[in-house]
Design goal:
With 181 residues, this protein is an alpha+beta fold. It contains eight helices and four strands; from the N terminus they run ααααααβαβββα. 62% of the residues lie in helices and 14% in strands. α7 links the parallel β1 and β2.
Length: 181
């Protein structure tokens, strides 16, 4: 997963500052998730916002109407109108990811992307989260994906920190040790 762009981080920081000022950081997080689901789930709407020849004022009006119909707060309505009007609606996913990073930093937690050969059980999930958290000194939120290409085990990534507990990784380590003698 790539890091959000500088533009996405700038929009996220502005929204984060407003949300914190209004003591609405959690509400904004939930509304952002709904907003991304709404826009990405409607191909015609996403295409509309992506068209550069549509006037910014028209995009702002449509964005405000979409947010109003979705029951989003005034802050989110204004934010979506701004993003759409500036031609940045295609970057909503990146903006949400950058906003989530800011909220995580506020709460002292990090997100770990975990690829596994098979879905983790609740006990495995709790153990892995606790061990990664102890190693990093932060609360860890696991974002899991099942990767059928893995023969067994898992690979966890937190930023540039990687824990390779996969069967392939363990075999590679064993091979390296044997090669050393």
């Amino acid at each position: 997963m790539k890091a959000p762009s500088a533009v996405a981080r700038a929009y996220a920081r502005a929204l984060h500052a407003l949300a914190r000022e209004r003591n609405a950081a959690d509400a904004v997080t939930a509304e952002l998730e709904r907003l991304v689901t709404l826009v990405s789930g409607d191909r015609a709407l996403a295409d509309f916002f992506a068209r550069p020849w549509i006037a910014a004022a028209t995009k702002r009006t449509v964005a405000a109407e979409v947010a109003e119909r979705a029951g989003l707060s005034r802050l989110m309505r204004d934010f979506l109108a701004l993003v759409a009007g500036r031609g940045r609606a295609a970057q909503l996913d990146d903006i949400v990811a950058a906003y989530r990073d800011l909220i995580d930093a506020d709460l002292g937690r990090v997100r770990a992307r975990v690829r596994t050969a098979v879905p983790l059980t609740d006990a495995e999930r709790a153990t892995l989260g606790a061990k990664l958290g102890a190693r990093l000194g932060k609360q860890v939120v696991l974002e899991e994906t099942v990767d059928p290409a893995l023969l067994g085990g898992f690979v966890a990534e937190v930023g540039s920190y990687i824990v390779d507990g996969s069967l392939e990784g363990q075999l590679a380590q064993l091979g390296a040790r044997l090669a050393e003698g």
